[in-house]
Amino acid sequence: MPPSHSHIRATLDAYLNRHDEERNPLEGLLAVLDGTEVPSNRATLPGHVTCSAVVVDRDRRVLHIGHRATGLLLAPGGHVEAGDRTLMAAAVREVCEEAGLRPGDLCLTPQFLDEPIDVDVHDIDANAAKGEPAHQHFDFRFAFYLTAEQPPALALQEKEVAGARWLPYADVRSPTLRAKLLAAERHGLDGRPEPVNASALIHDGAGRYLLHLRDDREGIWEPWVLALLGGGRTKDDTCLEATLRRELAEEVPGLEPTELLPFGVEEATSVDGLAVPISVYAGRWSGDAAAVDLREGVLLTWCTVDMLDRLRLSPGLGELIRRHAAEHPAAEGPPDDTYPLASGAPPGTELHIVGVHLHLQDDQGRILLGLRHPDSAFAPDTWHFLTGHCEREAAIDCLVREAKEEAGLTIASEDVDLVHTVHHVDSPNVRPRIALVFQARSWTGDPEVLEPDRCVEWRWWDPRELPAAVVPYTRRAIDGILRGRPYSEQGWGER
Fold it and tell me: Which of 104, 133, 286, 370 has its CA 20 to 30 A from that of 405?
C-alpha cells in the first residue's frame, strides 16, 4: 500500500508548522488531500505527490543528477510507488535507484529528522507519448547526511540519468530548496552525522541488564528482538537525554533510572535501511521488571552477561553490555530489589520504592522547594522537595548525599529528624512508594542548582502560600507537617 492520506497530511502539517507562509502556494496540494483520490498516484490530477532526496556531504554540497528526459539538474527523486511505506522511504528508494547509493550510506539530519526540508510545487508539461496532460508535482524533499567522510562511488541509472554533480548550498538549482539550505546552514546543517536517537543501558549494579522485547509487527525496528529502551528525537526535545527521558516516560511510566550518563554510541539500521547512530546512556535501576507498566513492546526482562550468547539481541548490543560489565564490575551480593524476596518473604509481598525528601525551613519559616526541569519524565515544571531514591544505603545517608549533590548543602546526619511519611501509589499497575520526609535543624551553604537537567531553580516558599504547581504528595506532606501529623496516604483511597 502507498503512503496513506493521513500520513501525507501529517507530514505536510509538520512542514507547515515551520513554514506557515507557504500555506497559500500549497493550496493545490491541500485540495488533493481533501479529495478522495490517492494523493501519490501519478494518475491523480491536476497534481500528485512526488518525493526527492537532498543528500548532503561533509563539504556542505548537495547531490544533483541530470535527468535525460528534461535536461534539468535536480536532486534525485520521482513518483511514489505502491511498496513505499512512507514518503521518506520513497525518497530513499529514488536516490538509491537513480544514483546507486545504499540506504545505509544515508542518515537523518538533526535539524529535520524525518520531516521534509522543502515542499516544492512545479509544473509538468503534457506528455502525449504517455497520455499525460499538463499537471503539477507536489515534491516532498527530505534531507539526509552521508555517513562516510567522502561521497561513495555512484552507479547512475543510465536509462534516466545523464551525469551527477555535487553543488554547494549557494548553487543548488531549486530556489526554494536553496533558501532552506542556506537558512539551515546557520543552524548547523553541516553534513556531519550525529546521533538523533537515544537508548538506556539500564543495570542494577549487581550484574543484571534490563532488556526490552520488541513487538513482531510491521514498522517496528528489528521485531521480536531484545533491545534497549529508547527512541528517536523529536523537534521539541532539547537534547538527547531529554529524548531518552521522554521515551522512558512514554514506554515505561514510573521507571526512573538514576545516574543517566553517556556511555557510547550504538550503530543500528532503521526499517528503511538508513544508518542510525544511537547515543547510549547508562543508568541504574533495580526494580521488578515484571511489575512495570509497559506501554510499548512485549516484555521487560533482566539478563546477565552469561546469558547473552543464548538471546536474540539487536546487532552490537551484546558487545555493548560486555564492555559495560567489564568497566563496571558487579557489586557482590544479590540485586537490590530481589533481596527481600530471596530471603523468604511471604507470597504477595509487594516491593516498594523508598524516596527521601528534605523539608528545610529558613529563619522566616519558609520551605525550600525546587522547580523540576520542563523535560523531566516526572512532574515537569512542578515544584518539589529536594529528593532522591534510596539505594542500598541508610535513608539519612541518602538524604545527606542528595542534599550535597543536588543543592550544595552540607547536613550532618545527627541534625536530621523524620517529620512525615507518605505512603502513595500513582496507579494499580505501578510500584507503590514510601516518601520519607526529613527535616534538618541546621545546615551550611546556600541552595545552588547543581543538577540543571533535573532542577532549574530553588526557591523559599511560605508554606501557606505555595505555588499552584506542587507535586501532590509533596503538598500533602507539607500540610501534614503543619498539622502535626506524622503520616498520610495518597492514591489508596483518600483518608
Answer: 286
Q: CA neighbours within 13 Å on the CB side: how many for 36? A: 0
Neighbours of 494 (CB within 10 A): 8
- HSE-CB for 195 with a 13 A CA cutoff: 22
The conformation of residue 307, written as its DSSP 8-state character, comes to G
Which triple of cell numbers denotes residue 365? Answer: 519559616
Separation between Cα atoms, residue 348 and residue 40, nearest integer Å: 57
Which positions ≥6 away from 183 have C-beta within 8 Å?
none
Question: Which residues make Cβ contacts (< 8 Å) with residue 152, sequence separation at least 6?
Answer: 101, 102, 105, 146
Q: Measured between alpha carbons, how far is 233 from 413 in angstroms, rounded to an integer? A: 42
Helix or strand run (H / E) with residue 15: helix 5-18
8/248 Cα distance (integer angstroms)? 28
Please tell me the distance from the alpha carbon of residue 54 to that of residue 77, in angstroms, as a whole number.
Answer: 9
Structure confidence at residue 349 as a pLDDT band (50, 70, 90):
confident
Q: What type of residue is 257?
A: P
Q: Which helix (H) or strand (E) holds 32?
A: helix 27-34
pLDDT digits (tens, 9 = 90+) for 179-231: 999 999 999 999 999 999 999 999 998 899 999 999 888 777 778 899 999 99
Exposure of 341 by Cβ count < 10 A (0-12 exposed, 13-18 middle, 19+ buried)?
A: middle
Distance separating alpha carbons of residues 264 and 280, to the nearest angstrom:
5
Cis peptide before 380 (omega within 30 of 0): no
Q: What phi, psi does 360 have (nearest 5°)?
A: -115, 130
The pLDDT assigned to 342 comes to 43
What mean pLDDT value characterizes the chain? Answer: 91
- CA atoms of 492 and 302, how far apart (whole Å): 29
**Prediction pTM value:** 0.68
- For 290, the grid coordinates are 515484571
Rounded to 5 degrees, what angle do the CA atoms 438, 440, 445 make? 130
Distance CA 93, CA 75 (A): 13
Residue with cell 512545479: 122
Helix (H) / strand (E) element for 99: namely helix 87-99
Cβ pair 22, 175 in contact under 8 A: no
| Residue 247: closest CA among 303, 194, 297 | 297
Report the amino acid identity of residue 123.
D
What are the Cα distances from residue 163, in Å, to 98, 150, 157, 411?
A: 10, 18, 9, 72
Q: Alpha-carbon distance 396 to 43, whole Å?
A: 72
Question: SS3 for 177?
Answer: helix
Task: Give the helix/strand (H/E) hosting 371.
Answer: strand 367-372
Q: Which residue has the cell 541488564?
A: 209
